[in-house]
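[Meeting: bench + compute handoff]

Bench side (C.D.) handed over the final construct sequence. Compute side (W.E.) agreed to return the predicted structure before the next meeting so the bench team could plan truncations. Sequence as handed over:
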Amino acid sequence: MSSLKIVLNFQAGLGVLANMFLLVFYTFIVLSHRPKPTDMISCQLAFIHIVLLLTGGDIWLKEIVESLNIDNDFKCKTTFYISRVMRGLSICITCLLSVFQAVTISPGTSLLNKFKHKLKKYMICAFLFIWFFNLTFSSNQIFSAGAFTNVSEAKQIKVSKSCSLFLLNYNAGALILAVTISIDVFLLGVMLGASAYMVIILFRHQRQHKHLHSLNHPRASPEKRATQTILLLVVFFVVMYSVDFIISSTAVLLWMYDPVILSVQKFVMNVYPTITPLVQISSDSRIIDILKSLESKCHQIF
């Protein structure tokens, strides 16, 4: 096993474990308490990232699937389709998370304030639309992905040991690529806009209330901590997406995938779903309290 594959396995394994912890935690919160809208969004995001890491990296599940006695063409189409759907869901749900947090912290005089009490209703509708759109729009992967053939073909680009992407029609491919880029740019713009709005709200709030707190020992509210966490995730997502987009665009334009470049791209793609749960775990006071309680109980036992 190469060093790059070891790094990818470790990265994906860490991400899966952290996301599974978050999924269990947020599922318990959603089922047992009155959840915040962002809790339900984070629960979905954890599930999406688990599937994304399992289908997008060189890890155990992918090797198990490849060892099954199933037609390679079907396995490639299924893997690429699920991976593409999860990638689309990741950017959409992250965008939704930033927008809902912006609405949550909006002041009473803001136009967004009237949506606060309807967040749960709008959120369910948003979930249904996002899932339906991505499951439908990503169906082109069923036609563009397939098993790698040894026959020399100019329109075939090998992206894994047994799978390839095929350029079936130049005009259709260019249209799908243009629409995909346009949607991603729009979502990134919404994320950055919501983030800028949250920064302005936090700055105004800090200026208005800094005389109530010691400048040497500021105490952030739960809403402020949650907002800062989401801002960090959005900035991190934009950076990782930009790097991934540059690598993907270069590979498609040159119509070739070097194994090293492919491994680097997989690493970049897996950074966000791996880092996200670690940031959320370290910044959610409820999780920190649970971990501290478990630590104290372990000290008492041992």
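W.E. noted at the follow-up: The two ends are 39 Å apart (CA to CA). C.D. will use this when planning the next construct.
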